[in-house]
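Ligand: NAP. Inputs:
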Amino acid sequence: MDTVAITGGTGHLGRELVRLLKPTHQVRILTRRPGTDPELEWVQGDLTTGQGVPETVAGAHTLVHAATFSPVAQRGFMHPVDFWRSPPDVDVDGTSRLLEAAAAAEVRHFLYVSIVGVDRPAMPYLRLKHTAEELVSVADVPWSIVRATLFHWLLDRMLNRATRLPVLPLPGALPVQPVDTRDFAEYLAECIRNGAVGRREDYGGPEVLTLREALRAWQRARGRDRRVFNVPAPKRLRRIATDMTCPGGRRGKITWDDWLHSHPAE
Ligand SMILES: NC(=O)c1ccc[n+]([C@@H]2O[C@H](COP(=O)([O-])OP(=O)(O)OC[C@H]3O[C@@H](n4cnc5c(N)ncnc54)[C@H](OP(=O)(O)O)[C@@H]3O)[C@@H](O)[C@H]2O)c1
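Predicted complex:
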């Protein structure tokens, strides 16, 4: 059995990928807090310091790099600071460390998980993801890069936080194409089988919704009735939101509505 090492294997996406790979691969996970499943190899480490990185890549055929630190995702809402800085130690410094170690260990496939729309990064966090892609694409290790649109769990978390406001101003016409981590994990498993091929096709959810439609479905499923008033979206924001969709790419099957009805409120 080939060993697939995964960073971010404890995250929303990583857990789904681990579940898919377990029957057919030896799966190794780099994490700050190892779990207890004895069928997995746990490496305690931290990408911000490099602890555990050599052990993670040693003897691995494929390394899936899905660890990230997004302050917005952690909080579930934007803070003004997010528009001028985002800590680079996991997404850029950690990626460099992994690439160097993977090249030294002769890993055959470095698969980097990225985000649709990072070519014209609108926020510092997205710039970090773009920089990481650039590092991967010139590294001395065979690679693939695969980008996805916004995950369902994160849209759910953001709407949950936003609707705590007494009245919600919403640029309702903005497009979103939320995707499920189970669908995307299946695509990643296919990318692992295909080996290192460079940039892969972008991956998005089955439908492009307006933010207004996404919120309406969310309120219905969560039994909420927060008052919303629509605000016009500035042109730049419309461009950013559109860049973060990929209607012409590969699409998952699980819709936002399906996901909401199979996931209780956070
Ligand atoms: N969320 C989205 O909407 C979205 C959309 C498109 C693409 N993506 C990309 O998909 C990937 C997975 O995202 P996700 O939403 O599943 O992430 P997530 O649930 O927020 O999980 C983050 C993961 O990163 C790991 N991590 C964070 N800091 C670390 C550190 N210092 N050292 C080692 N590991 C660290 C965490 O592991 P431990 O806490 O166990 O250490 C955890 O497994 C990321 O590359 C992300 O950019 C996300």
